[in-house]
Amino acid sequence: MRLNLKGAEMFIEVLKSKIHRVKITQAELHYVGSVTIDEDLMDAANIIENEKVQIVNINNGERLETYVIKGERGSGEICLNGPAARKAQVGDIVIIISYAMMDADEAKNHKPTILFPDQNNKIIG
Fold first, then answer.
1. Using CA atoms, how far apart are residues 25 and 88, in angstroms rounded to an integer?
2. Is 83 helix (H, G, I), strand (E, B) or coil?
3. Which of 24, 77, 88, 120 is the most exposed place for a label (fewest CB within 10 A)?
4. Nearest-CA neighbor of 67 among 26, 42, 34?
5. pLDDT (tens digit, 9 = 90+) per residue, 66-116?
């Protein structure tokens, strides 16, 4: 039996936002799980509080999913909290990625927000 999907709308998951190569500034094991991100970085990357993100550690290859909480604006803070704190050390370089679901036609024209902070987790330009 073949399922006919003609006329059905298909959604795909695509890259929405990426903060490329930021430095972990803190890891708090005994804290409710999440990642704390400087609010300036969140705004520039189009990431909102409580949004689900994937974190990829350049130093050790670890990958994890968590949610975002706001960090102090202008601080450069990137802090892994709770169990995520075991996945990185202060000084590790990570990529923070968020995705969005959209229909295939919309996805073809979608342009993700990609942020390349400096070595102090500050917005360049």
1. 10
2. helix
3. 120
4. 34
5. 999 999 999 999 999 999 999 999 999 999 999 999 999 999 999 999 999
**Number of domains the chain is built from:** 1
pTM of this structure: 0.91
Could you give the CA distance from residue 52 to residue 48 in angstroms, rounded to a whole number? Answer: 9
Domain that holds residue 20: 13-112
Q: Is residue 45 part of a domain?
A: yes
Instruction: Please give the backbone phi and psi of residue 36, each rounded to the nearest 5 degrees, phi first.
Output: -95, 130
27: its two tokens: 């890891």
Write out the catalytic residue numbers: 34, 67
DSSP 72: P
Contact between 109 and 23 (Cβ < 8 Å): no
CB 68 within 8 A of CB 50: yes
Q: Cα(first)–Cα(last) distance of the chain, in Å?
A: 57
